[in-house]
Amino acid sequence: LNNYVGFDTVTHQIERKFLKRGFNFNVILVGETGLGKSTMVNTIFSAHLIDSKGRKTAAETPRKTVEITPVSHLVEENGVKMRLTIVDTPGYADQVNNDQCWQPIIKYITDQHRAYLERESSPSRDRLIPDTRVHCCLFFISPSGHSLKPLDIEVLRHLTQVVNVVPVIAKADSLTPEERIGFKRRIKEELAFHRISVYPYASEEDDESDKTLLQTVKDLTPFSVVGSENTFMVDGQPIRGRHHRWGIINVEDETHCDFIHLRNFLTRTHLHDLVETTAHMHYETFRYQSKKRKRL
Ligand code: GDP
Ligand code: MG
């Protein structure tokens, strides 16, 4: 089975340097319990990153409060080292009253910005500040086929202010291809209507190839994904898939879902940009606002 992720193949010189130094990549998972968040991370990064025992207990006894738990893993491919931290947010939307349920998530993200700022401004600062800033938020949308929930819109509105948000339609295998297309279109319309800007963003510095890439990603967003930790033999080849009444869904087949596009996007085409955009946009915004607060 091909467990190769591919983050060592990024070609640009600057990105090669960034990769050679070794780097942190911090991803936060947001979405209702049972939408396949843990499974998706394991499907993308192949190894069993999230303790499956821990996951099961969490699923059986929904927690009353949102407990945010970062888990780090060292991932190495062809000499390129990445410290991957997955921040799980169990309990989202599980409560009777979900007012402000996004607060602990926003707090976690801004706490990392604050910690970085404190280190950066301390006189005896380390040459390399450990980067715990969240570079990407995978936001899992329930495959209702209808529209976003009011809570999703509210939460997205807050999240997009502080972090790169990448929305995905979870468990896309529960929708027909036609339903998927319609759902995707409606979500795009809703995001536009509510002026919620998800990652990636257009920039004035974009050249023609950047623009083409941006458009490709915009068209795919929200990625329809299917996750699986099981492998099946199909025509003598091991494939990662899910068994259904009508056959086996190959999660890596792009005619079945956008999983492969999401994985390429996260681990190849946009890995470096997610880290850069976090530093240059979200962190800078935080820094600017905290300076302003100090002056008041
Ligand atoms: P989490 O609570 O969001 O972390 O969800 P889990 O990853 O623990 O998954 C919950 C259940 O959904 C498990 O039984 C998974 O096998 C199943 N599951 C995960 N991803 C998918 C998917 O893409 N499609 C389907 N049909 N089931 C999935
Ligand atoms: Mg989970």
UniProtKB/TrEMBL annotation:
Keyword entries, A-Z: Cell cycle, Cell division, GTP-binding, Nucleotide-binding
Q: Where is the Septin-type G domain?
A: 21-293
- Source domain of life: Eukaryota
Q: Which CDD domains match?
A: CDC_Septin
Q: Which InterPro entries match?
A: G_SEPTIN_dom, P-loop_NTPase, Septin
Any single GO molecular-function term of the entry would be: GTP binding
What would be one Pfam family of this protein?
Answer: Septin
What biological processes does GO assign it? cell division; septin ring assembly; sporulation
Q: Name one GO cellular component term.
A: cleavage apparatus septin structure
The record's comment on protein family reads: Belongs to the TRAFAC class TrmE-Era-EngA-EngB-Septin-like GTPase superfamily. Septin GTPase family.
Q: This protein is called what?
A: Septin ring protein
